[in-house]
Amino acid sequence: MRKLSMRKGVRIAVIAAVAAPFVVALFGYIVMSLWNWLVPAVFGGRTITFWQGLGLLILARILVGGLGGGHGDDKHGRRRSREQWEQMTPEEREAFRQGLRDRCGERGAANAPPKPAES
After folding, report:
1. Statement: the pTM of the whole predicted model exceeds 0.70
2. C-alpha distances in angstroms, 99 versus 38, 55, 82, 106?
3. Angle of helix 2-43 relative to helix 50-60, nearest 10 degrees?
4. Which residue has the higher pLDDT, 2 or 81?
5. Highest-confidence range of 3-12, 74-83, 90-99, by mean pLDDT?
6. How many C-beta atoms surround the C-beta of residue 32 within 10 A?
7. Nearest to 95, CA basis, from 118, 112, 81, 82
8. Selection from 74, 71, 96 nearest residue 85 by Cα
9. 54, 26 Cβ separation under 8 angstroms
10. CA quadruple 21, 58, 54, 36: dihedral positive or negative?
11. Given a cut of 90, is residue 103 above it in pLDDT?
């Protein structure tokens, strides 16, 4: 069973390695096409080549997405925040909420975890 899953993993890795350059080239072509369609008509700018479109795509990835891979929805960070919240005393929670209100107004306090039901 383990041998089968190892072969499947290698096969997926090979397919990804072969397909990745085509996907990058496709996105570069899409960026170039959209730029050449929109920018000259809307802003009076110049057209760009495929390589400039690819460079623009990489630049946008660096500026907006960062250099690292995707981090998903950061479940670990949310779990850690929830654990810290649960370890606070009611007085600490209220002080935290007040700090949010002072810095962000009432909207900031709305993003704090909800108050537990009093029993």
Report:
1. no
2. 46, 44, 18, 10
3. 110
4. 81
5. 90-99
6. 20
7. 112
8. 96
9. no
10. positive
11. no
